[in-house]
Amino acid sequence: MEVAYYGGAFIDIHEKVIPIQERGHQFGDGVYEVIRVYDGHPFMMEEHLDRLEMSANEILLKMPLTRTEIKEIAAEGLQRAGIKEAEIYIQVTRGIAARNHLFPDVPAQFAMTIRQAKQFSPEKRQHGVSVTLLEDERWANCFIKSLNLLPNVIAKQKAVTNGHEEAVLVRQGFVTEGSSSNVFAIKDGILYTTPATKRILHGITRSAVIACAEKLGIPVVEKEMDVDFFTSADEAFFTSTSVEIMPIAKVDEKVLPADRPITNKLHKAYQALYQAVAQ
Ligand code: PDD
């Protein structure tokens, strides 16, 4: 069963509860997180809550709940949902007040949903997916996990409409990240990824994959990748909480090699991380 929490209580996920003057609704004035649950256990929850607090702090929003309270709501939600392979979505907004750009003096609002996680078939992972390069039209603070996702949703839609799985965004000739993922390339045995500046979200999966590579003795270089560099990679993949590691088979018309020894090794190492937590 899908579960939702809003206004301090568990509610029916289909219930109409967001007041018209919710600032998340009117301004996209808030921040969010997505946490993957494996076999009933939230994975890297502390890291996600760290990032949620960082994002809230960056937009000058005071968290309405403590970390312990959030974890308690998640635990109860998971129990009510009875879903073992789940995705927890958390959203914190600047509350409910008559529309005015100025910050209102009202408490922040906390929302959560718990739904079945998306599953990706082994065949799809084996085959890899197609991505398309699109201009990165987002703002200067992409490290904040803000609700303002308009450029991201437009990029994703354009990608899928044109037969791709993900949009890889390009700013001034350099690859930044996916519309909802981070990107990696492998060349001559070295793993490359865009540096964690303000231009990308500092993905939790990205950090975990870098740690896996270091443990496996795979050299990691954080480097601005131009389009030529990225499209001539030996292997490439994107990462996120929802997809884990997804191999890229094609970048627009450019087909990448089908042999992906390092991507496969990294994915196994990443799976071992959450399997260890779920035991
Ligand atoms: N998206 N970059 C962007 C723009 C993202 O939206 C995401 C995640 C990532 C990967 O971050 P992480 O590894 O911490 O999930 C990178 C989530 C899953 C979403 O919006 O649904």
From TrEMBL:
InterPro entries named among the record's database cross-references: Aminotrans_IV, Aminotrans_IV_CS, Aminotransferase-like, BCAT-like_C, BCAT-like_N, Class-IV_PLP-Dep_Aminotrnsfr
A Pfam family of this chain: Aminotran_4
Gene3D superfamilies: 3.30.470.10, D-amino Acid Aminotransferase, subunit A, domain 2
Needed cofactors: pyridoxal 5'-phosphate
Keyword set, alphabetical order: Aminotransferase, Pyridoxal phosphate, Transferase
Record bears the keyword Transferase: yes
Protein name: Aminotransferase class IV
An example Gene Ontology molecular-function term: transaminase activity
Similarity comment: Belongs to the class-IV pyridoxal-phosphate-dependent aminotransferase family.
Domain of life: Bacteria
PROSITE patterns to which the protein is assigned, alphabetical: AA_TRANSFER_CLASS_4
Organism ancestry: Bacteria, Bacillati, Bacillota, Bacilli, Bacillales
